[in-house]
Design a protein that fits this description.
- By secondary structure, this protein is of the alpha/beta class.
- Helices cover about 40% and strands about 20% of the residues.
- The strands form 3 sheets. Strands 3-4-2-1-5-9-10-8 form an 8-stranded mixed beta sheet, with helices on both faces.
């Protein structure tokens, strides 16, 4: 499966606290970070887009604030996150900058990935940054998170982000080299599984709990992340990140566990739009627009003759022709009120009509499924 990573166009790399931060000193593992960034730079040189999901803010911040090595209260965790995040971001910016790579910080919570409008905004921001050649660094927004700090994890957040940006591969770097039939630290008879073709109840039962001093995840959350990722058409790999150059080792066939995706990110997204979303509005289009959609084009405002129903940006809407025949279903780039204002107009007129520069398309072709 290492060839899958080699062929991937868009990759998400998740880094855990126990890898990035020295457990005894509470300081950043600078040499390890530099080696990982060399791997990321190599992926970029191969033309791949890379996004990093990085833990470590609380682990770094607790040392800065002089907090004892014990379970932190919620407000202490939030304070530690605030103190540590600025240092974590600076470390990534410095390390990536040595390879002439630009970075940007994105702070999210799991709730942001479940709120439709927050999801869309985060998705467009991340995709824009990737398109500009930037390596975005995402972390959970622990300063405002509540239950996420106590029960959350960046494994699932990384999977949600991979789903959000339609990544081809998700790399979870951990303190273990993959999935075993039991916890190898407790059971010497535990067998290693290198290739998981389907996540069955038996696979889920193999997960244990985290024994790391800093990480909040564990194999349970990694299995949950795998279910999210493969369902979005994104293959996921769990690999030991303790050694230097962990991504290089994956590419060279090193020991790791791959969870296979059944399809591509594009296919999974189209299936989700077509089969799992109820349309709440309708757009009537002219014959020219209908022909353009059949040729794989996006739906432009100029081809829309009428807007029906009440909907928000990102909601699913049906697309019909003048006779009412269903042509497609997709996610609207505009709420119904703005859609009515720009219907029938050229894309270059949108800013004058709405007072802001919106998207050129009423529905982008990536968000559209023909019926």
């Amino acid at each position: 499966m290492s060839e899958h990573l080699a062929k991937s166009r868009r990759v998400v790399v998740k880094v855990g606290s126990s890898l990035l931060v020295d457990g005894e000193k509470g300081t950043l593992r600078g040499q390890w970070l530099q080696a990982l960034v060399e791997d990321i730079a190599a992926l970029r040189e191969q033309g791949k887009e890379v996004l990093v999901v990085s833990s470590g803010a609380i682990a770094l911040g607790r040392r800065v604030l002089g907090l004892e090595p014990r379970a932190l209260r919620l407000e202490e965790s939030q304070a530690a996150a605030a103190a540590g995040q600025i240092r974590l971001s600076a470390a990534w910016a410095e390390a990536l900058g040595k390879h002439d790579l630009k970075t940007a910080q994105i702070l999210l919570t799991l709730g942001d990935t479940e709120s439709r409008r927050h999801y869309l905004n985060a998705r467009e921001t991340a995709k824009t940054l990737l398109g500009l050649g930037v390596v975005p660094v995402v972390n959970e927004n622990d300063t405002v998170a509540t239950a996420e700090i106590r029960f959350g994890d960046n494994d699932r957040l990384a999977a949600r982000v991979a789903q959000m940006i339609s990544a081809d591969s998700l790399i979870l770097l951990s303190d273990i080299d993959g999935l075993y039939t039991a916890d190898p630290g407790l059971d010497p008879e535990a067998k290693f599984l290198g290739d998981v073709k389907a996540i069955t109840p038996e696979i889920e039962a193999m997960a244990g709990v985290s024994r790391s001093g800093f990480g909040r995840g564990g194999m349970i959350t990694k299995i949950m992340a795998a279910k999210i990722a493969v369902g979005a058409g994104c293959a996921m790999v769990i690999a030991n990140g303790k050694k230097l150059h962990p991504i290089r080792q994956i590419l060279e066939g090193g020991r790791c566990t791959w969870f296979r995706a059944s399809g591509s990110p594009a296919t999974a997204r189209k299936q989700w739009i077509a089969g799992h979303l109820n349309a709440v509005g309708m757009l009537t289009i002219d014959a020219g627009a209908a022909q353009a959609l059949k040729r794989g084009r996006s739906l432009l405002p100029a081809g829309v003759t009428a807007v029906h129903g009440r909907f928000q940006r990102g909601d699913a809407v049906q697309v019909v022709d003048a006779e009412g025949n269903l042509i497609a279903q997709g996610l609207s780039a505009y709420a119904d009120e703005d859609a009515r204002r720009i219907a029938g107009h050229k894309s270059h007129e949108i800013e004058a009509l709405l007072g802001y520069a919106g998207r050129d398309e009423m529905i982008h072709r990536d968000d559209l499924v023909l019926r």
